[in-house]
């Protein structure tokens, strides 16, 4: 409901600057996570280096095979992303989304990103995250 109200306000807004809203499809977010970003987030939350190394080993040492015309292909490795059925993946994803949230908050604090007020007396909104069926 909040999202609908904000989008309605954006449509009706008059003025020189206008408004902008981003809708990012998180349904493929597990596949797109950058491994360096994951590692950076783990260091920022001050996990012990050995635990970071273990986590990153679980993320980066995965190999895949596909079936082409009934035959298995050679093994190949990914360059980014986390596996959807891995019990570690939801935790890594939440940590990365939390980091994104902090970066947006910093942009608002430094005046680089201006929030939208739903009404004159209403709260300001600068980001909303929704997760329907990520896992």
Provide key terms for this protein:
135 residues, mainly alpha, 5 helices, 43% helix, Putative RNA-directed DNA polymerase, two-stranded antiparallel ribbon, transferase, two-stranded antiparallel sheet, Retrotransposon-Effector_Assoc, nucleotidyltransferase, RNA-directed DNA polymerase
Write the layout of secondary structure elements.
Elements (H helix, E strand, L loop, with lengths): L1 H11 L16 H4 L2 H10 L4 H12 L2 E2 L2 E2 L2 E2 L3 E2 L11 H21 L6 E2 L6 E2 L10
Antiparallel strand pairs: 1-4, 2-3, 5-6
How would you characterize the overall build of this protein?
The relative contact order is 0.16. This protein has 5 helices and 6 strands; from the N terminus they run H-H-H-H-E-E-E-E-H-E-E. Strand 5 (116-117) and strand 6 form a beta hairpin. 43% of the residues lie in helices and 9% in strands. The strands form 3 sheets. Strands 1-4 form a two-stranded antiparallel sheet. A two-stranded antiparallel sheet has the order 2-3. It has a two-stranded antiparallel ribbon with strand order 5-6. It is mainly α and 135 residues long. The two termini are 24 Å apart. It is elongated, with a radius of gyration of 20 Å. Helix 3 runs antiparallel to helix 4 (49-60) and helix 3 (35-44) crosses helix 5. The protein has helices at residues 2-12, 29-32, 35-44, 49-60, 89-109; strands at 63-64, 67-68, 71-72, 76-77, 116-117, 124-125. It has one domain.
């Amino acid at each position: 409901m909040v999202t609908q109200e904000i989008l309605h306000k954006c449509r009706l807004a008059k003025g020189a600057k206008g408004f902008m809203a981003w809708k990012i499809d998180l349904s493929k977010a597990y596949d797109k996570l950058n491994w360096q970003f994951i590692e950076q987030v783990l260091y920022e939350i001050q996990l012990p280096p050995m635990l970071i190394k273990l986590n990153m080993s679980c993320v980066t040492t995965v190999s895949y095979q596909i079936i082409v015309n009934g035959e298995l292909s050679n093994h190949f490795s990914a360059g980014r992303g986390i596996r959807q059925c891995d019990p570690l993946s939801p935790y890594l994803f939440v940590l990365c989304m939390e980091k994104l949230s902090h970066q947006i908050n910093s942009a608002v604090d430094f005046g680089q990103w201006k929030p939208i007020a739903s009404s004159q007396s209403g709260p300001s909104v600068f980001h909303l995250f929704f997760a329907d069926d990520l896992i």
